[in-house]
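Sequence in, structure out.
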Amino acid sequence: MSIPFITFEQGEALLDWVEFTEALAQGHSLPKAEIGDTFLYRDPDTLLSRSAWIDGMGLAVKTANIFPRNHDAGKPMINGSVCLYSDLDGTLEALVDFHLVTKWKTAGDSLLGARRLANPDSREILIVGAGTVAGSLIEAFGTAYPSAQIRVWNRTTSKAAELATAYPGTKVADDLQAAVGAADIIITSTMSSNPVVLGDWLRPGQHLNLIGAYRPDMRETDDASLTRSQIYCDSRDTTLDHIGEFKIPLAEGVIQPSDVLADFYALDQFPSYDPTAITLFKNGGGAHLDLMTSHHILEKWKASA
């Protein structure tokens, strides 16, 4: 029996954003994942392996090979794949395209947070940042909130305009503060190390969804956003002590660990939408989400065969 390799195009044809968020929720009903990361270096290149094992689902190893010099040769700087293994006997079940898994995991993670916390009748969605992830967010949130107007703000306005052209119906936001004030859902997907969206701009009923920061020194919002909001995340284990969005204000005593009210392993503690509250969700990622995403892709591929 041959082992399937599920390409980006094959996976895209099978997946639905709302259905995928329900699969992520179901994955968190299983025992908590065991996860581990490994980094290997040969300057300037990096091999990153992220591993996860969920009892009852299986095992996955996601490998990212980051070769910055590839850019000069016209090649992708990041390549890799996900190996899925059977929970029953450890045998290889499938190889899944790296970029497919990363796209759906990242945007789907934030979409699940928003679907549990934001106004279900949201009409204005603002995406801050116009990189690769922003395109995935337009697709994901456009599916879940079909009546919403999606706007994109970027420091370089021309990049936001290019993205809006690629996704008809999307508009460019010129004034960030005004756009934040008008939005029901604000999603940040920047590479900024310093706050971009400020808490003083927020109003009750809004949902702030943070994606970009992934290092201990990175933040996309400020202390005021945290102290004014009800705080949630996808995983305490991958956010509190690892990402500056929480790590810095925790170290400075601005917030306490108990101020992060719940993660996806306690989805029943995510409240219904409250128009009097500001909610904040931090997307921290993690290998367990790569496993859940890859497993869902494989299940959809099997059902279509």
